[in-house]
Amino acid sequence: MSQAHVMFRAGGQSFAVASSLVHAIHDELVLQSVGDTKNWFLGLAVADGVLIPVTDLGSYLKLSPSSGRTLSISPDAGVGALRVDEVIGVDDTATMVSDAVLPLELQSSSELFSCSLDTKTGKHWVLDVPRLLQSKRFVDIGIDNSTDNGVSA
Q1: 96: containing domain
Q2: Burial letters for 26-55: b for 16+ Cβ neighbours within 10 Å, e otherwise?
Q3: Which residues of 77-94 are buried (b: 16+ CB within 10 A; e: fewer)?
Q4: pLDDT digits (tens, 9 = 90+) for 69-95
Q5: Between the CA atoms of 68, 141, 139 and 72, what dihedral angle is there, to the nearest 10 degrees?
Q6: Which end of the chain is more exposed for a tag (fewer CB within 10 A), N or C?
Q7: How far apart (Å, rounded) are the C-alpha atoms in residues 85 and 79?
Q8: Is residue 107 included in any domain, yes or no?
């Protein structure tokens, strides 16, 4: 039996994550913005009584911004949530394709994708959520406000 994956779209691309990595799917979360952060960091939200940082996955991947549902990551994988455009569903019959060619738009983030899934709804790139949550770029949400002379603004 294959592992179930949550299929979704963000920034014009189709993705999948192992369903065990998704704690919840939220339709609307009230966000509190945080100043001096990257444009892809949407802010903080309270979901199920827990404060979580929310990232716009489309913008983070240098695609178009995402607006729609939010995937809350399982606490076993880390702390965070990803804003996506739409959740397509869950599939446990998908075929894994390890030699698929990553689209040009995703190549700057190639370390986050090792394979794709072929499903009834098309091809979905499997996002390595633990690698994403541990990457330096993902953790570094602050804007560099220093000037050319080395003095902070």
Answers
A1: 5-138
A2: beebeeeeeeeebebbbbbbebeeeebbbb
A3: beebbbbbbebbeebeeb
A4: 999 999 999 999 999 999 999 999 889
A5: -20
A6: N
A7: 20
A8: yes
Is residue 67 situated within a structural domain? yes
> Residue 37 corresponds to which tokens in the numbers above?
């952060």
Here the tokens at position 61 are 């991947």
- 3-state DSSP call for residue 45? strand
Number of residues that make up the chain: 153
Dist CA 29 CA 54 (whole Å): 9
**Phi and psi, residue 94, nearest 5°:** -65, 150
35-65 pLDDT tens trace = 999 999 999 999 989 999 999 999 999 999 9
Q: What is the DSSP string of 100-126?
A: PPPPGGGGGGGGGEEEEEEETTEEEEE
Indicate which CATH number applies to the domain containing 91: 2.40.50.180
Residues 54, 144, 59, 90, CA torsion sign: negative
